[in-house]
Amino acid sequence: MKKYATHFVLVSLALLSPCARAPAVSPTGDWDAFVVTPSGQRVDFRLRVERQGDSIKGVLLNGGDRSESSSGSFDGRSLHLRFDYYDAELVARFDNQSLEGSFSRQWRRETLTRVFSARRGSSARGHGTSADFSRMKGNWVMRVGEGAAMRASELALTESDGQPRGTVLTVSGDWGAFTGRLENGELILTRFDGINARVIKGRWKDGRLTGTIDLGTRAKPSPFVAEPATTKNLKDLTDPSSEPRVRNRSEPFRFSFADLDGALIASTDVRFRDKVVIVAITGSWCPNCHDEAPFLEELYRRYRGQGLEIVGLAFEYTGDSRRDAEQVRAFVRRHGISFPILLAGTTDDDDVERKLPQLENFSGYPTTIFVGRDGLVKRIHTGFDGQATGERSSKLKAEIEELVKSLLDT
Hints:
The chain is α+β, with helices and mostly antiparallel strands. The chain is 15% helix and 43% strand. It has helices spanning 131-134, 231-234, 287-303, 321-335, 351-355, 391-408, and strands at residues 29-36, 42-52, 55-62, 65-68, 71-74, 78-83, 88-94, 98-107, 110-120, 138-144, 151-160, 163-170, 173-174, 178-183, 186-192, 197-205, 208-214, 222-228, 245-246, 256-259, 264-266, 276-282, 308-316, 341-346, 359-360, 367-371, 377-382. The strands form four sheets. The chain has a nine-stranded antiparallel β-sheet, with no helix packed on it. An eight-stranded antiparallel barrel has the order 10-11-12-14-15-16-17-18. The protein starts with 28 loop residues before the first strand and ends with a helix. The relative contact order is 0.12.
């Protein structure tokens, strides 16, 4: 395994040494688990291990969000869970009451490895909510970072089963469900979904929240300040001048890339002629793209007979066509996608605009382009709100479906 001393927490070989104690029969059940960020913070989540016939399945749980393993095995000593759609795996030594090991995944052209640890636990974790949290509940405009690097987003805090919950809403969609606790008046929210390992820590004082966000990357945690959301400050979250758009709205939108079998598919093909086309700029590594994919598939099955076509343009990590194609195939299998997904490029800076020169101000994944029967772009939407956003997700889906229906009727 390659070493990345500045980015990873190394896993001691002692974790993989034979255990003197006789192992229990099975690791099935619920576990209080965590991984460790490069800055040394633990990111709590729940791991559920289930037996299905002769196989083992693992589920990473963050509130109502589930990231299920694509395969798994247990040999009496070691648990091995594979998450092929993220090119990731969990390997841990089992000794009845604990699991100790690592979680590794592909990240761009590197392999990220994090220490993983778990103890058998109950469904509750933390100290529950209190009057301190009642002042924190609600929506906040959160400004992260300092100076020119400062970015604004929306922080939504709720409560479920007596425990703090939350999510962050950005231009590319939500960060998924965070679970949390209060410790000595400090709110701690965490999420680990196989891709992101994030920690939000904040305190309430004088009507504001202040704290830090650890994104689980090389960078040290960033400071933030949050104020209650209002109609006025919510406008700070979007800048119309930075929204993605086409350079010439009177020019038909064009694409031409190979599919997963190497066959060229282009916007000029007969299958797209006189059709409403949704072009989804996506990636198998992108959690919000995983949220969007089943909804697009639902639209495709419902409206294909009325003239809707959908095509995914995948921008993947490595640039290795064989490896990237396999990751997109795993993405397709996970969501039962029947529309074509093409290998369009990589996540290198500006590659989207190089491969799709009609676009400018591309800002995030997923970006969804709605093309009318005349071949012209009618609307572009960046991001996708998943189930953690509740009514916001339902509203977005309804708006997109209404847009599709109106374009089909044109």
